[in-house]
Amino acid sequence: MAEQSAFLARVRQALHRDHGAAPGVPRAAPSELHAAAAALQQQLAGQRDTLLARLQHEVQAAGGKAVRVASPAEATAYITRLAQDKGAKRVVRWPAALLETLEVDAALAHCGIDVRVAPLVSEADEATLAAQRQVWRQWLAEADLGLSGVDYAIAETGTLALTARPGQLRGVSLLPPVHVAVVEAAQVVPTLADCLLLLRAREPEVQQALTSCVSFITGPSRSGDIELTLTIGVHGPRRGARGAARHAGDEQRELTRRERRCWNTMRAGLAKSSIATPTTSPRKRSWSLPAPWGRPIPSTRTKRTPKPPPTEESSLRRRSVSSFAAGAMLPDLKLSYGKRGFDGGKECRFYAPIRPGDTITGVDRIAEVYEKTGRSGNMIFVVRESELTNQRGEKVAVIRQSLIRRD
Amino acid sequence: MRLATEAFVTNAERALQDATLQQALTRLVNNFVPRRLEAMAALGNAEELRTRAREIKAEAIAHLDVYLEQFAARLQQLGGQVHWADDAAEARQIIASLAAQYGVKRVVKGKSMATEEIDLNAFLEQQGYEVLETDLGEYIIQLAGETPSHIIAPAIHKTRQQIAALFHDKLGVPYTEHIPEMTQIARRTLRQHFLQADMGITGVNFAIAETGSIVLVTNEGNGRLSSTLPRLHVAVMGMEKIIPRLADLPVMLKVLTNSATGQKISSYVTLITGPRRATDLDGPEALHVVILDNGRTRLLHEETREALYCLRCGACLNVCPIYQNVGGHAYGWVYPGPIGAVLTPMLVGLDRAAHLPRASTLCGACREACPVKIDLPRLLLHLRHDLVQTRRVSPVERLLFALWAWLMQHPTLYGWALRAAAWLQTPFARQGWLRRLPPPFAGWTQFRDFRAVATRPFRQRWQETLRHEGASGGETRHG
Prior knowledge:
The structure holds two protein chains of two kinds.
Chain A: H1 4-15, H2 30-45, H3 48-61, E1 65-68, H4 72-85, E2 90-93, H5 97-102, H6 104-110, E3 114-117, H7 126-142, E4 145-148, E5 152-154, E6 159-163, E7 178-183, E8 188-189, H8 192-201, H9 206-209, E9 213-217, E10 222-223, E11 231-232, E12 239-244, H10 257-271, E13 284-288, E14 340-350, E15 359-374, E16 377-389, E17 395-406
Parallel strand pairs in A: 1-12, 2-3, 2-4, 4-7, 5-8, 7-12
Antiparallel strand pairs in A: 5-6, 6-9, 10-11, 13-15, 14-17, 15-16, 16-17
Helix pairs in contact in A: 2-8
Chain B: H1 8-17, H2 19-43, H3 46-62, H4 64-77, E1 81-85, H5 88-101, E2 106-109, H6 113-117, H7 120-126, E3 130-133, H8 136-144, H9 160-171, H10 179-196, E4 199-202, E5 206-208, E6 213-218, H11 222-226, E7 232-238, E8 242-243, H12 249-260, E9 268-272, E10 286-292, H13 315-319, H14 321-326, H15 337-348, H16 365-369, H17 376-389, H18 395-408, H19 411-424, E11 429-430, E12 433-434, H20 442-447, E13 450-451, H21 458-472
Parallel strand pairs in B: 1-10, 2-3, 2-4, 4-7, 5-8, 7-10
Antiparallel strand pairs in B: 5-6, 6-9, 11-12, 12-13
């Protein structure tokens, strides 16, 4: 529709620049690329073991499964067992040289599993290709397990890099519910940047090196679109399992581990400020500051507060109008007003420094309760004042906190 | 997408009353905010990466014409086609004519904000095509006939019960609230559509000038399926999606995914360089990239240019106290939150979105969260300045601020005025706060209190402090 020249002229005009004032990205010199790639390969040769361990850890953290095997036979045994466990009837695979050496076809066929190997197309007439594409589309859609190699595996993120070359169908790692990739130790690189460098050093022309598609795959397909609850296998493989040749060891990890970690950290932060001495009104509480005092203080929006020790008052806490980050509750004000409560702001005054190892005691009192009427209805403000003193009885801070209750 | 920005105030009030939405927003904040913070801290060099990412975007946008031209040329070398769309209508027309040209019947879509921006679905459906969103969240809201309420979690405002009922009604499946089961229902339904579709439409996360490649980032794989299975792949990109070099991708990707979901990388990052080659057995036979302006050249002015650095990660939404309370729909257009409050007025015109630049406390949390350090508060102030300059604020407000400015420039008068105010407020002030102000200030105290004027002005206290320090040798002690 719009002409390229007109479109770009408008952009140029808006940028207040003259045409051609800056060159585009120059082509990278192949000799430099090769030198950099060779240097990287040499450097990596000494780190294989660390890289493999990291890859395994990260794949599992992303919800995949990573198994290190000592020999091709062990890899074959693992793949066969997995295919049987999953009740796979049809397996599709790349014609990769590494997979040929595993002799996995025979092992699978022995278990009555149908294996289809993608053809290494070099040159063929368009009619033959079209027919093959049609057949493979069907096979990929029906397959229960896809078996591929990788071009590289990225240790930092647990990512597999798969290019689309002859025989390396994209669909093998995409359509079947289970994807197994076999990775050689020498294919593991530390970062995505390293992977891109090695990829482009393969061919003189970068566009050729990138092929029509490079898929970077990290763990199985996942979604949090329903209530932010993590689920796997929306579109792509529900299971991404990979074997890494040459090393032994088998470890499994639960899928949700990584998701849980963040909230465990939050809880740990809260547990550090547990309540020691809940007493009578005006309510007193004290806690010891962990040393070093370096942990992030959890957001006060979180509802996950640790339970205070059972006291008479704590039976009232469910209906109390206010709560504090440490979980200490005020006695019920018998305010049965409104459906929602929210923070009305805080004001902190500091009088003396608080140091690691200090024991801080707080005395709370309700300073004020009053009502306001807004456009949308009535609101009740509860102002609470906490006076904090340290173990020497010095006043360290006073916190005034307003809570608003409204319809 | 229908523009409802003018109704921001009523929309926001309705959102505040919506208990389900409030619950969803709490969940969003408790989930995304700590995840991002944890991930950024784990990076170790987050600051450096953000600075580098900003430099990359700054370079790309400053030479946008050059890089766009290079991108187009490189893509065309491989048989990819590039289309230039000045506005939404043009983009829609381009896509519709492509569909006609390739004899398309069914369309599947990967998640894309650019296609929301041009309101593509409704248009294609009107033309008789079957269009299906394949991102789970987008699919849900498409079934419900709604619009996304968050850039990366479009169905965040819906509960599992609502979605379960929706699936039951629209898909005729047995009612279930079990999330993995619901996901599998969507998978089964969508898989059939993927296999039958003739055209896949996706967005673009990054377009690399050096190689003519486009990059799609998804967790579900909807981008990968939409760009692999149908015979025609159409990618719609805002023209600012360009990055210069392939080597820039690792940095951009890292800041994007860590900011968006706290992941080191998303499950699927797909780097597409042209349509399938002669020897490929799968992949689309044709690739068309639609480059969209739709008001973006207006943002290229130096003052506002950095709004185009945005990666659409959604981090500024999650930390914004306004978004946290009113959610995405209240903003009334595709882009909510602080970045929406900046982009929307600039893309659709300040006249139609005058409320949005004011929907901010200018607290700066968005600037802190932004992976490319966009100074959103500055941009919001810039827009507010425009509002005043173009007389789009009430005359009373203008008068009051003019008076205030005049007063501030006359120190003696200012001192008297403050003293008068301090004296006048005495019957009303309690504990240093004013509960209610008379009109025209009543709006302020409707939902909050106002700090009372200090009985002893700062300037007086400052003078005293200076005198005191002069006497005690000048060392200041705090605490």
